[in-house]
Amino acid sequence: MAPLDLAALRLAVQDPAQVKTRAIDLHANAHDASHFLLIPQAVVTAGSAAEVGGLLRASAAQGVPLTFRSGGTSLSGQAVTDGVLVDVRRNFRDIEVLDDGARVRVQPGVTVRALNARLARYGRKFGPDPASEAACTIGGVVANNSSGMNCGTVDNTYRTLESLTVVLPSGTVIDTGAADADRKLRALEPELYEGLARLAERVRNNADSVDRIRQQFSMKNTMGYGLNSLLDFRTPVDIMAHLIVGSEGTLGFVAEAVFRTIPRLQHAAAGLLVFPDLEAANAALPALVETGAATIELMDALSLKVGQALKGTPAVVQDLTVRDHAALLVEYSAGSAGPLAELQGSGEAILPGLGLSAPARFTGDARERGQLWQLRKGLYASVAGARPQGTTALLEDIVVPVPVLGRTCRELIRLFDKYNYSNSVIFGHAKDGNVHFMLTDGFATAAELDRYSAFTEDMVDLVLAEGGSLKAEHGTGRVMAPYVRRQYGDELYDVMRSIKRLFDPAAMLNPGVLMDEDPMAHLRHIKTAPPVAEEVDRCVSCGYCEPVCPSKDITLTPRQRIVTLRAIESARLAGDTALVKELEKDYEYESVDTCAVDGMCQTACPVDINTGSLVKRLRKADAGPLANGAWSAAAKHWEGVTRGASLALTVVDKLPAAAIAPPNKAARALLGADTVPLYSAELPGGGSVRKRPTPAGAVDAVYFPACVGTMFGPAGAGQGTGGRGVQYSFEQLCARAGLTLLVPDGIDGLCCGTPWSSKGMAAGQETMREKTLAALREATRDGELPIVCDASSCTEGLRQAVESDIPAAGQHALRMVDAVDFAAERILPSLPDHAKLESLALHPTCSSTRLGLNDALGAVAGAVADRVEVPENWGCCAFAGDRGMLHPELTASATAKQAAEVADMGAAAHASCNRTCELGMTRATGAQYRHVLELLEEVTR
To answer: Model pTM?
Structure first.
């Protein structure tokens, strides 16, 4: 490979800083969700189609490979390179809804979930429905011709695409939806234009080619290029557009695409049908399809055994003595209740004749449906998460004609046994003949690679003998690139090679992906996963965590924090001390300092990893004796600390900013930005003490006001635009509802423990935990009364503390309730009719999400305002206690898109449920955010 000319790349983009070559940037971005690993020479964050064109020209001129990367959820190695990696995730996130939702124009950095959130208000959705919808982006969806559980081959990317704007390897930009697109392509790219016309004629005039293409693309099929476009379309520009679909970044860059959308069917009923064996399940498919089933998911016997260990698995599986059984998860969907009832009735009518091994029924109950889908979706996480340390989980997919699906699955199981691959569950989309299976191994030693190679050869023979495709959904990538010729034959393989030469004569776009002449290519560049930390070793690098991470656009994501730690360990094992030193130099800020430890990654992780737990342990290891001593002392004298902070804020609130900034910045320079907070003008003065008199008479709940109310005063209090804070408001609401609260003795010296936990100060955390639990035991009469807290992050911290408390004999377990939940259940029903605000912008928090409070939060907000809006770009604000004051750039990045959306709302009020999050959002938007209970108290006076 030619040496990289960084100057040329930097000239191609607006800001030279967009071109990154630090070791941490290269290794953090090197990993996608596949089992392949290549380290790029440079990572470039592109900001526009013009910049992409310049990068393509610069790369071609140097003869250096270039690969596009967006969500990084591809499983076949499409987004890794040892050349130039172009990141299009951080930008290219525009969505334009057209024709009242019937069509949509979308850029490649938008996730499928974000797109569907935008379309939901129009009663529409995106056709493809991949399982990775929370994290996969439109760029990858187009590149892989994504489909999913429901869409089949009818509503996949290829079928719903209307047009796209493509940047060709030459730098030429073509909008295929423009009226003059065909003429423009002919004028600017004459060789490509004429070449596509010749290839289309060549294929159409070869009856064998036509028959093979029609047969192959009658199924889900992402092997090789989409040769069906040569038959389905007539003009070269339309052929080009649809060849780009499924081309895996080897033909050009999709800067935006226009799709036809489909109706969003909100009524559904599902049931789990258990059969004696795979063949019986397979035999039932035609009848089930005939009833109009939208989804039919297959699970083999091993899947059912694994599923029995999952929490919440339905009784039909839990009570089954699994032998050779197989199950089909069948779901019907409709736009309204009437049509759904008809579909459900059709399904129930055929159940007696299916020869089921257990009674079955269809249910529309959301909780029961959720359990069924948790069983299906939990299989991957269960097996991948339980794999031995240091091994890799390889998820494959194939497709065969539906009539031979059962036989094919039986033969796959025989191959698993032959090659000693244990826990290789088979599951997938039975209606389409498409199944997934997983192999777990080290894939590192010669013996492991030989075994994998032999298994792959047998699997390829099996699938092709049945008339199937070696890739249905996941793309050819690197894993099946050597087998494209075997699947299509010499003639069509040569057509594909001709397509590649026409688009990319320099062969610089994603080489090694989709086609590879090396028969052993799929055995090269397989990544290893050395054990690094118990909290994260089960990570499969899927990337589902990335969209919810508040630091994703400024430093590292959870996946990147983990893979960089693995890179450090791999370098250490290899004796590469220089690389270890270089990675560790930047790891502290990129990974540890700018992690909000908010736990949102865990809500998205299929193997239940909270990367924040790792970061807390790293902070604990880094904390010196001086810091530990200071925080331990603070735990013992917390009342003085909080009152001191309150007094300090009150004093500085009265001073001009010019008097505060110089000494504040000097202190940060001297003691470190991760030690001294940066003061900013929107911070309020100090708050008040939490202590309250002991009530007379019966008590309904113990109230634990959060200490942030002491440190930070109410929103706008100094300007006369705010209230008296959430403690006053909650007490007033409870009084109106006839509820009596008891505030524990010594409350001003108590805390949930989160400040110590988030900073890794273990000794101080334990001191505070013991103090707080003792006070709560006394106040609740050993757990008889519930404990209510008025800040969601503090509720979460207290819940973790009380869950660690083991009740003595005769004691009850302590019970934590957030004030929002308490209000929704105990206060809202007793409130009189009242006038509401016109509109409210609502910010759920990471803790309200993790605690499952958001429905209650929405209910309380609905009692405040007629219209409640949660921004589509909502996410953790990353204020994270004091993290937003230590590293304000983190909160600025995390809230940028949400803040712009809030500004456009023009809401009458703004609310959240956690004081520090309210501060973060106030800083981001310039609007005063208050606790939703403060607003509820005001509108119900």
So the answer is: 0.94
